[in-house]
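Final paragraph of the annual report: two paired records, presented back to back.
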Amino acid sequence: MAERALSPASALGRSRDAGGAGATSDWFDAGTRPLIDHAPAAPAWSLGATGDRQGFARLWKAFMSARVLLALAVLGLQISAHSLSQPLPDWVFWLSAGYIAVTMLQRGLARPRGPGRSFDGQWFTIVGVDLLYVTLLLSQQIAGIHYAPLVALPVLMAAILGTRALALGTAALAALLLLGDAVIGARASLWAGTADAVQAGLTGVGLLALAWLTNNLSLRLAREQQIARRSRTEARMQSLVNNLVIETLADGVLVVDADFVVHAANPSARVMLGSDQEVTPSVFGLRDHPAWVQLADLARLTFAGEDVDGIEVTLYPEEREAVQLKVRTARTPSMGRGDARLCVMFLQDLREMQAQLRTEKLAAMGRMSAAVAHEFRNPLAAISQANALLEEELDAPTQQRLTVMIRQNTQRLAHIVDDVLDVARSPGTDPQADVVQLDDETELFCHEWATQHAAAGRLAVQLHAADLPVRFAPEHLRRLLVNLLDNAARYASRSDGAIVVSTGVVRHGPALLSVWSDGAPLEPAIERHLFEPFSSSESRSSGLGLFICRELCERHGAEIVYERCAMERDGRALEGNAFHIRLRRAPGGHSSLGPESSFS
């Protein structure tokens, strides 16, 4: 069982307000470094991010599918022309069918090998097949069908998916093919041949311009997507960090709108409000509960423009004790006309602040107590010596009893002085700690406590660590058990077995000592400061008992933790509070028990 501790962050990340237009965080310093290396000859999809490769693969598949659909469209056009009394040669149908088969094979078998490869072999097979197919169709002007527009597809594919050199090279090759076809196909007259050549030249120039513009637009789009992806990643990371900080803050944080609806509340705020996450929805109103009306009034003042800084309020929940809070509010800046503002409320539990003050007082009192305890030693030694001399001179039984009482109390004071000095020293493991039998000492101390408090039926002792030696001073173990039993008796019921003391051992691990009682569950604010000095739910309690227990455990290399757990009694599980102490085994303690000894 591991001890659970709350380690809240101390403050939120800072943000800067840029002229009322919105908050920009200085957590990331993205503005001081370039996001993209703007190389003019870089391929459109050569930025290297995983998202870019995925986008490249999607465009690749789209162009491969477009080639198949275009091939099917050309074959359909040829079949339609043939059926309309414009016969076509058989080789044209076989050529189109073969082109369909090649494009389908390339669609299924070809794989993009990464963006930015100018001379990838697949480019030659794909672009070359397309240009060869168009060239063969252009060589035969059949049925008046013009196939020149088909060269636009390979040019666009090279411009969008390839480098600028590949795009311009593909466009130039297509222009040369069109120009060559125009020159070779001049049959009618010189004027007609010249017109076809000029038309082919203009088409080639258009293809070059199309390739250059498309490649530039594709490159710019890829850069913008890369910038947007990085910005989105940084914004998501910053949001996660902010959420983590807010969720672990010891101070409560509420986000309230003008209608007093709470849109966000961290766990600390819910604890202060007594709002159970399982019962109260994630979005609730401050006017849903009478105890929260004061917070709604503070939110109204904030929206009205009045500053709320450090106002103390007291909430009176129906089923919980009153909660004293220190409230500070802030209003979010307006993002534009008509945008609703939000009120952020920061709640501080005054009990937490008082506990911190008590801790600071304890540090000063500890130094003073150590000095006072040191000064007590000489008077106690003088009283003990004078009492011993007086005891030798007195014979009356009544006077002898008085001297015995003086001796016992001076010894007790001497032990207290030693304990105060031990606590004042830096905690650590004492290599010369006494060795005690855990079961024997536990049974003896529990019997003495039960006899003194007349609680024999109320206390149950379960011993499961026979002949197990542990490192602990007997007097300190007695003090530890007495403090835990007194604390359990204060809150446990009066029924039989309301307090259970048990011992055990973890296989190949420490020895265990547990004190369980059927008391009510602790308040979250009390539980967080359970082992701190002066932390108590009762005004007449000093709040030092559990603190001394923790100090004694640390003195002997042990560990004490609190847990709310169930104990079986009368055939049913009964919830209660348990304090578990993990004790160091003494040398030989690992071999004193059988191999099957365990405790759970």
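The closing record of the year follows.
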Amino acid sequence: MARYTLNLLCGALVLLILVPVDVVAQNHDHAAMGHDMGGMAAGDSVTWRMPPMDMSMPMMPGMHGMNPSAPAYLPLTPQEAMALPDARPRELVTMADGDTLHLHAMMVKRKIGDRHFAMFGYNGQIPGPLIRAPQGSKVYVHFENHIDQATTVHWHGLRLDNRFDGVPGVTQAPVEQHASFMYELKFPDEGLYWYHPHIREDIQQDLGLYGNMLVDPSREDALPRVNREEVFVLDDLLVDGSGPLPYGQDAPTHALMGRFGNLMLVNGVPDYRMSVKKGEVVRFFLTNVANARTFNVTFGNAKIKVIASDVSRFEREQWVDSVPIAPAERYIVDVRFKKPGDVAIANTIQAINHFRGEFYPHVDTLAIVSVADEPVSTDLSDEYLALRTNADVVEDIESFRSSFDRPVDYEIELTLKHQNLPLPIVAMMEIDTLYVPPMEWNDAMPMMNWLSTGNEVTWVLRDVRSGRENMDINWTFQKGDVAKIRIFNTPDSFHPMNHPIHVHGQRYLVLSIDGVPTQNLVWKDTAIVPVGSTMDILVDMSNPGEWMMHCHIAEHLQAGMMLSFTVEEEGTAGSP
């Protein structure tokens, strides 16, 4: 068995160090059942293509010629895409209280390598416009849909009015093609947020529908001074020589692990570069918009000062060696570049080869920082080296400490169900459970993952007390309640997998992981639960309405992994 050491940073940053021993994987040859054979066209004009394969992870016997059970989908062929406008880089939109932004979801073409293909963009931009507004303001977004699917916009992390949360069938009707919807956004909290669809995220978000919101704190001294700011949107895209690999038209592919890409993107491009001067202190606003990949971000040998996460600053600034960031999470970090030369910002992980039962170090370059020999004009070294305590955050959290040791109100476990999977996949999963890593940093079984769709796989949030699952759950709270929820990620399911759990419309504290209390708290809306771990969270039920709680791996969400809860106005019935 493999041994693992789990280092926890503030209950939110999870850095996994994997120490492997040899595990022998055995092959089972079973006849394929229930999946299309022979590589025939699976959609109106789209043909399935086998995912790019690492030859050290060969195809299991019995899988040759198989295709996912869902029809294939791509927006347009490469030839049709040539008539589309080119995708443009993100633009900054500074908004004041009461301003209105016109936001369009539209089709664009992108060139990666020597080929053009169709993608989606907000206002023709990938990422979409960067919305910057002051804390306490309210703005309006007039949204129009001009892609070939119904969509909505979810304003991830905002404690806004429920009717503008962007969840189809819960807070609003889907916005059909050429229709529109007016959103009203409130910014009660400082920090970094993002927006994306809440219909077929596995397709629409992956093809470029995502953008950031940056809410400036009301206090000018809330954050330490820096020389410059950089907003980094981290993503990956699964491509081959013909462009993006097709998606499942009526059910997601890659339903076991999620769709991991093989092309790393920063702000929508695979070769992001920036230049700084020697000694410059740069503030990086990091958002992970990938469907499934958790990044472990390093900045060469530079020290990293963690300032804030999803919905607030940390109680105390802290030095870290890397920033593990799960899908939908955000982190704000400061980095000083002391020496001239090129510095690689990288995804530095321990990858896994399920076929061989091996772990190995792997590094993907995300961006290059060219550090000039010219010194920065304003030296902020002293401020950078100081670690501040944020008294206002400590005071805010202090009012919740009396609830830290209260009994758990609800307990949920994370697992999955499956039916009609090809027998070679079932056989391999029986072997795979012999070594279960707490974190899946890479797609270690690309063929099996691709063939497993939402038709065969259902990911489950199960209420331990009632036995109810997914959308059969609807907890009720009152505004002002503080709910303690325990989340257990069972390690003995068919395919154990880490899950980033997102709570809509509220904020929460990660109190502990595996019984170890978090020593440096921060308000979150998304946090990852490793396999086999138990995470206790304390949710501030401050925002009335019907809300969602779900895994933010896009394919897991589409495969059912979501529940609902209602926060009623004060004075009405209902409590944990």
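The chain has seven helices and 38 strands. This concludes the annual technical report; the extension proposal builds directly on these records.
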